[in-house]
Amino acid sequence: MAEAAVKLGSDAAQAELTDGFHLIIDALKLNGIENIYHVPGIPVTDLGRMMQAEGLRVISFRHESNAGNAAAVAGYLTKKPGVCLTVSAPGFLNGLVALSHATTNCWPMILISGSSEREIVDLQKGDYEEMDQLAIAKPLGKAAYRILHAEDIGVGVARAVRAALSGRPGGVYLDIPASLLGQTMDALQGEKSLIKVVEPAPAQFPSQVAIDRALNLLKSAKKPLIILGKGASYAQCDDLVKEFVEKSGIPYIAMSMAKGLLPDDHPQYAGAARSLVLKDSDCVMLVGARLNWLLSHGKGKQWGEPFTKKFIQIDIDPKEMDSNQPIDAPLVGDIESVLTMMVKGMDGWKKPSEEWTGAVAAKSAENVEKMSGKLMSNAVPMDFHGALGRLKRIFADNPDAVLVNEGANTLDFARSIIDMYKPRKRLDVGTWGVMGIGMGTAVAAAVETGQPVVCIEGDSAFGFSGMEIETICRYKLPVCIVIFNNSGIYRGTDTDPTGRDPGTTVFVPEAKYDMMMEAFGGVGVTARTPDDLERAVREAIASGKPTLVNAIIDPQAGTESGRIGNLNPQSVVQKKK
Ligand code: ADP
Ligand code: MG
């Protein structure tokens, strides 16, 4: 009797089938994926629907670049791969901007895209949206895989998850030809074929020799400096970073997205004395920060050259060492493991001299004092400082709010003016300094953290992803977008010397962006004074309603390319009239 029941049960199970759709969903869920950033269309419309029906949270966007940027920053925020699901060819190509962005920023992301059948693509027979997507994605991510058979979905998803998270994180492409989705197999076999990735990012300790070398160098420094980068905030070992910095007594600065890893009002924070510490320090310890263009490659007058410094660098990727300057003490490993060993070796640590820390603190205080007057400006039309002075207060009162920031002047001023108090609260243009991340980033920040999000956007930057305010309204996300509207790129004052067209960098003067928000049922406000601005943003945070504040800024207020105008090539030719 009992034997018969078992046999019957197994027959019934054998008769039960699963298919590619369900196996992909089950494999993602098995690996802890909860949210999917998506644009529906052939051949993945039903996959998106079924994901939603099976309990994944699916956020449908208006453009794949924004869905992809959301997935990329979701990876940064959660230390799990952010997943973006796109349609074939053009949708896939749009998603690649974000895949490259994720890889460049070292954030785990998986771009899953539907594609055409191999038989047609490989003979170039001309399919609907035909493209050899795998070949195109390969150089833009850490890895790229294609799954042809339902029984390989478990392996394909596992490889994508592990590739995205292991070592230096990055973007992974996963190609799913349309016919995979409908393929069926035995449900039990299917379940068994799925893989839950075990320890995708294992602890990686450096040798004790490397630790001793670094500690000795740091000990012998007279004017040491620590630079925290977004690798350190990604690592999510916030208390350990704090313990290390405080035990060391060394002044530190934070790269843009590492702001708030320790609160920006920390006594050792030297952000306001950045020029001084970069120039005068004799030993610099990089913690999850790269000596790339954002740090002038560690070279030049800014770094006090010809005087040379010693460098210590913690990075998960051994190839990062010596990429710009010789690294005297490389610490290859994950930040948590490395700092655990460093802290162990610091018993009886002697903090740097009062002469150094005092000079840094004095310079900081002097610069903060210089700035404070400007931040009180009540000028109308508003300038950047007057507007940002008010937003600074709002973030001080709402330390859990997430700040999304892009633009040129709007980015540069906001970064230095607005203090962050908690880790991973400042999300911006990242390693590339790319425009267009705004609304995708805002959506992911709201979905992944559940906290209020305030976007400080240049009017130009906003335009790249502005249509997603419909997505923000549709999903009722607590996002307040403040547009710094100076009616143009850098400034709103350019003209066409021939008199035919508008200047190349200007927009419709005082465009009514707030009306766009109203079109989708959100709250739209025009703010002409710092008081208007402050009131509108505070109300938005309190209500949690999607809000767009159109902050009218003096068109004369900006400078060309913000703080990186030096990167513009200059023409030396004077054309004769
Ligand atoms: P920032 O722009 O803030 O300077 P970067 O993105 O340039 O930061 O640098 C981050 C660095 O952190 C990268 O080189 C990356 O390899 C490294 N990294 C990322 N995660 C970890 C980790 N868990 N442990 C150690 N290094 C990490
Ligand atoms: Mg502008």
Low-confidence stretches: 1-9
Strand composition percent: 15-25%
Q: How many β-strands, per DSSP? A: 19
Please give the alpha-carbon distance between the first and last residues. Answer: 102 Å
Return the average pLDDT rounded to an integer. Answer: 95
Taking all Cα atoms into account, the compactness measure Rg is 26 Å
The tally of domains stands at: 3
Briefly note the structural class of the backbone: alpha/beta
DSSP helical segment count: 23
What molecules are bound to this protein?
A: adenosine-5'-diphosphate, magnesium ion
The largest sheet is:
6 strands, parallel
Helix content: 40-55%
Please state how the strands of the largest beta sheet are arranged side by side.
3-2-4-5-7-6
CATH class of the largest domain: Alpha Beta
